[in-house]
Amino acid sequence: MEPVYFVIHRTVCRSCRGSGFVQNSVWHEFYRPFWFGGVKPVDYDARAREMGYADCEAMPPEEVECGECQGTGEMRYEVPLVEALAKLGVDFPGGEAVGAEGFGVNDLDRAERDRQI
Ligand SMILES: [Zn+2]
Questions:
Q1: Please, are residues 101 and 86 in contact by the beta-carbon 8 Å criterion?
Q2: pLDDT tens per residue across all 117 residues of the chain
């Protein structure tokens, strides 16, 4: 059996843009009437009470660790070495260079995402 080699493709997490944190969904819901409902953000504590909290201070933290990257800010994928070389435009025996496109998040198809490590 021929050995199969992989390289690691690292990219910035799309969900948190590399910060490692995202807005807590509770706060997204909190802001919804202000952003989309035409409600003037006058009394934030009143909005917190509508959501069942004593006031804004009693609400959970506004930012939480990004679940997509587990707070690292980056995504890592295993990519077969021959595939990586081809995408980088490196010609090699038995390989077919496809141009120096480099890697981008959009290059990752579902199969690559499934190889996330
Ligand atoms: Zn992230």
A1: no
A2: 888 899 999 999 999 999 999 999 999 999 998 888 887 878 899 999 999 999 999 999 999 999 999 999 999 999 999 889 888 888 877 665 554 444 444 455 555 555 666
Cα(24) to centroid of ligand 1, in Å?
Answer: 13
Using the Cα atoms of residue 27, residue 31, residue 35 and residue 36 in order, give the sign of their dihedral.
positive
Contact between residue 95 and residue 86 where contact means Cβ atoms under 8 Å apart: yes
The alpha carbon of 110 and the centre of ligand 1 are apart by a number of angstroms equal to: 18
What are residue 75's DSSP bridge partners?
11
Place of tokens 């995504």: 75
Is the pTM here over 0.90, yes or no?
A: no
